Backbone:
């Protein structure tokens, strides 16, 4: 029985993450879900959040945007709008983005695109969260 | 003698031009390589998206989704015209504009145009196209972020009802030497299931939500791939054009060099005959 999963995180810009891991935690629409080896085939909707995984070399945190995950035959493929390893996240920029989005939501003028501002807010919060998670691990 | 000086300065100036065209060719070649790498980096993503589509659409399943739904009453067809950031790339930009003009003429429904690229503000303004928006800030080697910006703008326009159909007009990249203008319908999306899915999937939370996410990715992905293809075509066209230009400058320089040599030879011949003539005249004077 296999005890490793091949985790790939892919955006249209290329493959961001590609490793053999023991366990993957995914931010799904219905809450966080842990995937172990020999999971049943699953297609899930991924929301803004952090994918965490543990391999022999250590733990990794990757911030992802909305997308889809495909689990089949110990291959976990996350297709996402954006993805970046949490270590490379610029925390100051994410905080600034959160502030901007909050201001835009608070201002609520006629031409504010509320859905768009909210999406930006979600993204900024998720990225900060992922960045903090890495710090805690170290 | 003045003639020789003129030819020399002419050669100098052609040489300068040649240097510029040569450099532009090299820059285009470097950009071309970069966009082609981008195109191949996308392949994994495109394949995976297709797999998911297959799983979702297997067995002819039908879903209701605003991005898929065809609108019966089309009030506005939006064309996105991809042009380069500058000219000097042969017929690349002109062919695209002419193709779109043709389309608009045949289209009976009202249409509007979004221009993506810095080239030809004046030309496009005179072409009689109904331009509603121009994206000026376009990178020569587009990345995901550029594509997301455009994709989000188009999705917003579509969902808000400003446009009922969105088409992308770009140069399809066949090879470095050959591109042809193409019309690709972006929205409403018409994804196709290419095969049956071999697995019995669990859907979490449900098919409709997942389809929405896949469609979002599908649209982003399509925009990025078109963007890369258009840019690759542009760089290829510029490379070819500049290569031809460099060749013609070389020919021109050779022709001018020949003229220069002839002029120099003529000058020398005249000088010699003058000297000989003068010497003969002196001889005659001595004799007499």
Residues:
């Amino acid at each position: 029985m296999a005890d490793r999963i091949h985790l790939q995180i892919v955006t249209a810009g290329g493959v961001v993450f590609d490793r053999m891991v023991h366990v993957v935690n995914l931010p799904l629409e219905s809450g966080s879900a842990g995937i172990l080896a020999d999971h049943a085939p699953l297609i899930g909707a991924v929301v803004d959040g952090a994918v965490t995984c543990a391999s022999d070399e250590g733990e990794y945190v990757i911030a992802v945007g909305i997308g889809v995950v495909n689990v089949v035959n110990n291959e976990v493929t996350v297709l996402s709008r954006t993805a970046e390893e949490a270590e490379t996240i610029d925390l100051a920029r994410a905080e600034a983005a959160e502030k901007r989005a909050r201001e835009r939501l608070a201002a609520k003028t006629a031409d504010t695109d509320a859905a768009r501002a909210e999406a930006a807010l979600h993204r900024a919060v998720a990225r900060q969260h992922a960045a903090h998670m890495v710090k805690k691990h170290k | 003698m003045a003639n020789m000086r003129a030819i020399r300065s002419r050669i100098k100036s052609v040489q300068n031009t040649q240097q510029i065209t040569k450099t532009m060719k090299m820059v285009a070649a470097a950009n071309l390589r970069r966009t082609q790498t981008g195109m191949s980096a996308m392949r994994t993503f495109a394949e995976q998206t297709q797999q998911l589509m297959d799983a979702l659409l297997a067995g002819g399943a039908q879903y209701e989704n605003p991005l898929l739904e065809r609108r019966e009453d089309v009030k506005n067809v939006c064309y996105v015209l991809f042009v380069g950031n500058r000219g000097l790339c042969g017929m690349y930009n002109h062919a695209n504009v002419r193709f779109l003009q043709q389309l608009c003429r045949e289209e009976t429904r009202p249409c509007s145009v979004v221009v993506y690229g810095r080239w030809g503000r004046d030309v496009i303004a005179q072409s009689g196209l109904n331009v509603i928006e121009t994206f000026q800030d376009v990178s020569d080697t587009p990345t995901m972020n550029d594509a997301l910006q455009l994709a989000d703008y188009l999705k917003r326009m579509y969902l808000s009802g400003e446009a009922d159909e969105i088409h992308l007009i770009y140069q399809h990249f066949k090879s470095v030497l050959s591109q042809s203008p193409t019309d690709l319908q972006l929205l409403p999306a018409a994804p196709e299931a290419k095969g049956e899915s071999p697995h019995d999937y669990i859907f979490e939370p449900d098919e409709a939500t997942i389809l929405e996410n896949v469609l979002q990715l599908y649209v982003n992905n399509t925009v990025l791939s078109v963007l890369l293809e258009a840019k690759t075509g542009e760089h290829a066209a510029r490379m070819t054009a500049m290569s031809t230009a460099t060749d013609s400058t070389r020919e021109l320089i050779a022709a001018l060099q020949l003229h220069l040599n002839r002029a120099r030879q003529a000058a020398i011949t005249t000088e010699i005959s003058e000297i000989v003539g003068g010497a003969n005249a002196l001889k005659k004077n001595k004799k007499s």
Chain B touches chain A at residues 38, 41-42, 44-46, 48-49, 51-52, 55-56, 143-144, 147-148, 152, 156, 199-205, 209-210, 212-214, 216-217, 220-221, 224-225 (CB under 8 Å). The radius of gyration of chain B is 30 Å. Chain B has a mean pLDDT of 86.
